[in-house]
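User: I'm putting together a teaching handout on how multi-component assemblies are represented. Below are the sequence lines for each component of a complex, exactly as they appear in our records. Could you produce the 3D structure of the whole assembly as structure tokens, so the students can see both representations side by side? Please keep the chain order the same as the input.
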Amino acid sequence: MTKFNIFSLIKNSLSYHENWEQHWRSPEPKKEYDIVIVGGGGHGLATAYYLASEFGITNVAVLEKGWIGGGNTGRNTTIIRSNYMWDESAKIYEHSLKLFEGLSQELNYNIMFSQRGVLNLAHNVHDLQEMSRRGTAIKLNGIDTTFLNPEQIKEKVPLINLNGRYPILGGLFQPRAGSARHDAVAWGYARSADKLGVDIIQNCEVQGFDIKNGKVQGVKTTRGNIKTKKVGIVCAGHSSVIADMAGFNLPLETVPLQALVSEPIKPVLDTVVMSNAVHVYLSQSDKGELVIGAGTDEFVSYSQRGSFDVIEHIMPPIIELFPFTSRLRQLRQWGGMTDCTTDRSPIISKTPVDGIMINCGWGTGGFKATAGSGNVFASSLAKGEMHPIAQPFSIDRHYDGYLIDEAAAAGVAH
Amino acid sequence: MLYVRDPYLNEMRDQTEYHIRSEAHKARPLEPSKVSDKDWGDYIFFFANTKGIHFERWVNFTGHRKWFNVIRNTVTDEILATYRPDEDVKKIIADLGIDKKDIKVSGVLKKLKKKSS
Amino acid sequence: MTQKNRLPKGGRINRQKELSFKYDGKNYIGYDGDTLASALLANDVHLVGRSFKYHRPRGIMSAGVEEPNALVQLETGEYGEPNTRATQLELYNNLTAKSQNCFPSVKYDIGAFNRLISRFIPAGFYYKTFMPNMKGWMFFEKFIRRTAGLGKSTGLPDPDHYARKTVYCDVLVAGGGPAGLVSALNAGKTGARVILMDEQNEMGGWGLTSPNMQIDGKKAIDWISDMLSKIAKLDNVQVVPRCSVIGYFDYNFLTAVERVTDHLGAGNGGSKPRQRFWRIRAKQVILAQGALERPMLFAENDKPGVMMSSSIRTYINRFGVLAGDNIVITTNNDTAYFSALDALNAGAKVTIIDIRKDLKSDLLEKVNEKGITVHKNSAIVNVKGAHRVKAVEMMKLSDDGKSCIGEKREISCNLVGMSSGWTPTVHLYSQARGKLKWDEQRTMFIPDSCQQNVQCVGGCNGTMDMSDTLNESAVSGVKAGKLSGNKSVSATKHKAVSHTEQPPRNLWIIPGEKPITRDRKHFHDFQNDATVTDILLAGREGYLSVEHLKRYTTTGMATDQGKTSNINALAIMAEYRGLTIPEVGTTTFRPPYSTTTIGAIAGEAVGELFEQDRRTPMDAWHKSHDAVYEPVGDWSRARYYPKNGEDMYEAVQRETLATRTSVGVMDGSTLGKIDIRGKDAGKFLDLVYTNVFSSLKSGFCRYGLMLNEHGMVWDDGVTARISENHYHMTTTTGGAGRVYEWLEELHQTEWPEMEVFITSVTEQYAVATLNGPNSAKVLSKICKDIDLDNEAFPFMTFRNGTISGIPATVYRISFTGELSYEINVPARYGLQLWQEIIKAGKEYDICPYGTETMHVLRAEKGFIIVGQDTDGTLTPMDLGMNWIVSKKKPDFIGKRSFARIDTSRQGRKQFVGLLTDDKNIILPEGAHIIESKSIEPHVNMLGHVTSSYMSPNCGHSIALALIEDGFNLKGKKVNVATIEGKVYSASVVDTVFFDKEGKRING
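Assistant: Of course. Below is the structure of the complete assembly, with chains in the same order as your input.
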């Protein structure tokens, strides 16, 4: 694998960039793999990478129906943070954040993780109480966080309007949080996994499973049958569809989530700003676009598009919070399909089928977990036992009541 | 943005006048104390989440506040039918010519359904 | 001042009305009817900006929405606006604009340093470097951020206002060119309600670019006004200029934005909105948006002075501007010949470089006749000039078109027109989920099929012949009218002078002097500086899918959304992979079609009209008595009433003491109120509350808890039985809406057989709550017809009566533990009631208090506030409220979930009181109970403080908390850690801090 750095860039410049090698192969599927990952998004590719790099399991295939990173990995607002309230959540998101901190170097691919900080705003007394509770918990979990008063917020985000309809009373700031280049996360993992021997097979749709006596024997795909004893399903919005093929049901609903960007402008916003009360989260990309998260639709949809009213409802709050945005122009909007659980926590779990594990339910906030999720899922698949960080996220919590209720804790989890 | 025939008004209305509330025909067990933890969990948390023909519940929240059901294709988002809870869903399905195998409802429904809704 | 390039006559401009404007600090003159772009070109200004990445000098490339280069910073101060397309900006008097992305000026730009290193920064270079470590990247990132971005935001609030409009129509026609006009006329003739929108300031589209084309025996320009006057006669057709249809969503819901007063100039809109956002539900849609010309990908094709061949023609015919007098036109198709002819007629010297080998076109004869030299089978291999084209270098093409051969010839010129075919504007069709098919012959994606009620006509349907366009438009118009429920009429018939197109030659990459990877730059996405070699590099590195290509090279991601670049990029990738274009696929066209002001989409719902708050009937009094408010849900509630400069703490201490000492009054109008009637009302309430309501006697009240199906507390309140089949339910302020909807849901979907009628009456009643030992004395002064004696009117009952003549229902319920009366009157009497109470209470120093004092008073009694002391994860048992959970009822919502393993286990978080060792320490709400005495990383957290206040009635601080196994910790000490890192010691106690015996409830 060509090492990426300034020298290789110069060297290749001298040969007119004619000699760069492909970042990943386009192999034909083999007859059999030790482990098959269904879904070539960030989580699936990360899983494959860690299987190879941490557990030495390289006879692995990642099956992707379309193109890698084409689902929610390539459609999110790229926020990475770990300021979650419940211990179980804090653990996995912080595990992820820590992996992200060294990921560009580890993968030798610049994922442009920029720790520009994430600021959550409080607009009423209830927000402040919740923030104090969450902030204290986060601190006691050893994760960085600071409470900012309105003056400190104004200093950090000069163009914010403190005195709108819902005045800003304070904010919780996580300095190590930030944003990254979402596509690059998928590509970086793909490139490194490929080089370790993982087969990344695009345009390969899973159509069923070969299951005997409750044990998985193989995967049926549009490119033939593949034998395997271990399958990891990591396909977000399509999880229920794939699970259905394996004969079980999931506690999920797949709903559209939309986002939009403005035209690029010179830097006006250095941190990621989130407000649950007015349902806004936005940041400015390196390219200069304001990246704005809109909400989810109420209905199940597999069409990767949402309702326009979700987009139009996000505009007044954005202007309320940042009045200057009124004269900017919207450039583009898009939608993804998010697999939502009732408690807004993910599922990383064994399934009723022996040999099949599933990693889904990340809902509207999965990007930030890509590294951690892939890492603990790889460990679980390799060892056949759930990684300790993953254990609380079992499907079983829906039967025994051990929910990790981020929905109740924060209203919405982004 | 969807456009729906309100079965109470019998006219086309905008989606924005409605809330859409998850899967339809998921009847609450008549005697919850007699169902297992597994069945109870299935009832509360598990959904058909169908890619394709989906049965869902809508409620008008700007006017008459009535609940009704909608059959929608979740791939094209086309609404195939809307009907009141007291209408005969089997007939509606037959009239639409929907193949039974294309209908996925969360497993719990089959097991727990003790009354029609 | 002279306008060097302005033709002596022609164009749609008003030469009587001169407009002065300033560009990059220099003054110019243009005419009414100009765009900024046409006015600049009239003044021979081509260089208008610098490119995104390499900071290459760029000129005006088009005359419309597809413009990638000519983005300007418009105006300054509060009206300032970045990234405005000069080609769409109508000129107004005193317009001021400047070029973007350059410093210190567009001519001498420091950023042009990037050109020198351009060789080292191909597509995706940033993925390969700048990553020594986290800090290193963030150091580099700072510079990258600074150099990226286009224009500058003002950072100021927007002084303009915007409007929104929702309309329903039979037929929406998007695009007002010849096709759109004929469609609208024919649809209109059916009687349909038709809306015709066009993004330009006047209708006519392509007809304005080619005004001399013959249609129905007339010049196009006259034919257009003829059509418009016919349309004007139809009352059912609305024509909206300056209005871009930008979004096409499900069920024929479309959005459009109309520039209402932009063309009048900043601040000149008067009372009219700046822009109007249209939300349209159309039964039928006709898309008549035409087609966009594609640039040709030869070396150095981005120099200022290189523009689309049709744009040269538009500037001549529409604006009377000849952008250069020595023109080279290079093309692979016939349409550019018309531009050549018009330019020649306008007085320019014209040379054509046609990449096709054999030309049989009648056009060839025509241009030869006029003395235009046509170089066949030839291509431009270089464009000379820095800030403006000076000359092109031309070579012959090899047979396969893969390389250039022979002698290099230089042709001097000051303008280059290029055309590499046309791309139908299928954006909206694709947004509508329309499927496209590839037409190999004409190299274009054309509409195939769509699930929505939409037809495409003319250019955007791939119909390039004018007669065909007009006739299919007429038929489509009639069809749309008929399908939307109107009468059938016969379609109008049309005849235009046609020209038989010779097939184009499709060379997606125009070869240069050297192999493509080593040649000068061939741009395909001008704004994002993406070149042909970037596509090849992406292919080489494995970014083969169109979406990967797009994301890796940033092709099509600029503010023009790839209008001129998409097909070229696709085709080159297809060629690289040895596939056909449809095999490679097409990218998703995402709304909006053209960039749209965020303020316009928001419409009126900003500033004072943003999520308007709800106020109680007593609000005028609160306001005039200096109440400090807090938002609670969508309500604004009085939080406290400071006196003599008190802060919140002081005011609340005073209010809390005064209420328990004498009497206090609170506005409780925001409380959710739901009227429940019917013979099954009691049975229904038994299912939604944990306790029994069917056994409640008429005239009595009972406190109830509501759970969700998970068994977790989610609302509470007191419900009274008014009569046998009639209950009055109260909910929390924030829960009013969701409880009401939930009750309806349960009734309609689970228990439809029950006879229950549920009505929200929150806003029908105003509520004043009297609390304190003197409350009965105050009430007795104004209420003569209710016996307030404790025996006659016991706790947890209600009475109807009158208060100062106002009909009232008085509930003897209490959220403070004091003798208390909750007085409900019709909302319109709320203020009067309040004033009467204040007047009557004067002799007892009645104290109006707000939500904060309410919180302290209830905390002294250990009463929960749902949402503050609960978080959706607590059962009634966790809250120590087993007493309210019926053991007898076989079922109620949430009951079954109690039996689950986690829900039934011992040692869950439980609701307890906390007393700090130091009575003056008020624990912060949200502080955590931890296992150790000091804060160590990952210390075990046992729970948190939910409520905490200084209680003046107890004489020490009090707190409520949720702690694991809390009930068993009573009497024990715990450590409480704050976010600041302090740790306090506190004792776990009962939740009732004050009047544990409950004696005060009867005064």
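A couple of points students might notice: The longest helix of chain C spans residues 466-483. Residues 101 and 149 of chain C are 8 Å apart (CA to CA).
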